Amino acid sequence: MEYKVLALGDVASETGLQLLEKKLRAFKKEHDVRFTVVNGENISGSGLTKAQAEALFAAGADVITLGNHVFGKQQIVPYLDSRSDVLRPANLAPQSPGRGWGIYDGPQGMRLLVMNLIGRCDMKYGPDNPFLCADRILKENEGMYDVALAEIHANATS
């Protein structure tokens, strides 16, 4: 079985959000995209608000990921705890609000595990090793998903 997943990197500014509101649904239809992951942490410049997240979902996002600016807008904190489809980095401290991964229903009964991880290079804090975290998530959920997708928010590719 084959289907297309669209992953969009940092949507920067309200202008980027407005572009997705105008174009994303048509793009998905034209290219037969079945699942869309959007990194939305920079829409406010640094952080995401609940209203911006709701606008991303209305535009066609299935999951929203965040990164090092996850708490740039503190009003997002209660929203993170209420939504399983807005992901903060999984390798942050375990007491952090929200969740870092989820399993979502895809087309034709496929189950898609999406995890959000953050790199450690040039970060002002010390998140856990993203690779060990990914291994743990995959192992703990073995047999519960068909496809796994990792969004790694990092300042280095190495």
- Terminus-to-terminus distance: 32 Å
Query: What sequence of helices (H) and strands (E) makes up the elements?
Result: EHEHEHEEEHE
Question: What Rg is obtained from the alpha carbons, in whole angstroms?
Answer: 15 Å
State the helicity in percent bands: 25-40%
Instruction: Give the strand order, joined by hyphens, for the main sheet.
Output: 1-2-3-4
Residues in β-strands, percent: 15-25%
Query: What form results from the Cα inertia axes?
Result: globular
**Please, how many helices?**
4
Strand element count = 7
Q: Summarize the biggest pleated sheet.
A: 4 strands, parallel
Structural class: alpha/beta
Q: Which residue ranges are poorly predicted, with pLDDT under 50 across at least 5 consecutive positions?
A: none
Mean pLDDT figure: 92
Structure description:
This protein is α/β, with parallel strands linked by helices. It is built from 4 helices and 7 strands. The chain has helices at residues 13-30, 50-59, 77-82, 130-140, and strands spanning 4-8, 33-39, 63-65, 86-87, 101-105, 111-118, 147-153. Strands 1-2-3-4 form a 4-stranded parallel sheet, covered by helices on one side. A hairpin with a 5-residue loop joins strand 5 and strand 6 (111-118). Helix 1 packs parallel to helix 2 (50-59). The longest helix has 18 residues, at 13-30.
List the helices and strands and how they pair.
Layout: E1 4-8, H1 13-30, E2 33-39, H2 50-59, E3 63-65, H3 77-82, E4 86-87, E5 101-105, E6 111-118, H4 130-140, E7 147-153
Parallel strand pairs: 1-2, 2-3, 3-4, 6-7
Antiparallel strand pairs: 5-6
Helix pairs in contact: 1-2
